[in-house]
Give the backbone structure.
Amino acid sequence: MLKELWQYVSSSTSLPLAKEMGFLKEAIAMEARAKRCQQSWGGHYQSCQKAILTASQRAVQKRTVLIFGAGSLHDIPLGILSAQFERVLLVDLVFLNSAKALAEQFDNIELIEHDVTESLVTIQNGQLFVERPMAWLDDTTIDLVVSLNLITQLPLIPVRWVMEHFEVSEIEGDILGKQLILAHLLYLKAFKGEVCLIADREGVESDATGKVLDCFDPWWDIEPPKAVNEWFWTLIPLGEVDKHTSQTNCVGVSFL
């Protein structure tokens, strides 16, 4: 707990809303969980890296690769991408010091703190309006775009924020969540290079015997693109949050 508190105090971000809305706190909590769950998360990281390398093979040219949701960088084959591409642009709202240290080892890797929805300032003020993202669409050197474990996470903090701070109803929050997912899909499809989407497809909560207790749709009832590859990720091992339950997600890869 003290280590996480120190991380929060010592971490810097160019986007004040990252702290104000809770994104920095969430990033630190996820990094701490990743360390505790190395055994169950390792396979997921490897599968993500393989999917990204498969996507890189589809790119006709190797000028710029743009990755949204880069976060901790654990699920990105940094060395291979750095060798393959002239530029590697890694985008997320928050990068912790550990990620910054990793990226500094490569001259052509750039970390960019950016709101990929381009809507958080508006949402932070209680306006339920989702912008059409435009960043990098005019960069003709981008040959590969990867959305990495991001799209189903986009609604979580913003919807919680407006419901807690502006008395937004569940129905209004649900509409906002759907809009954020759809806007990201349309944004990805607007790029001219190869586009790879890596995202959760289903979440399953089980008890200690393996009996399924609940299933949930991380896509907010929106139909995801067809997956060409899938794997299972034990996101919350037994005992991590509750000694009686665990959560396993199905993760899929799509090319748009």
Remarks:
- The chain has nine helices and eight strands.
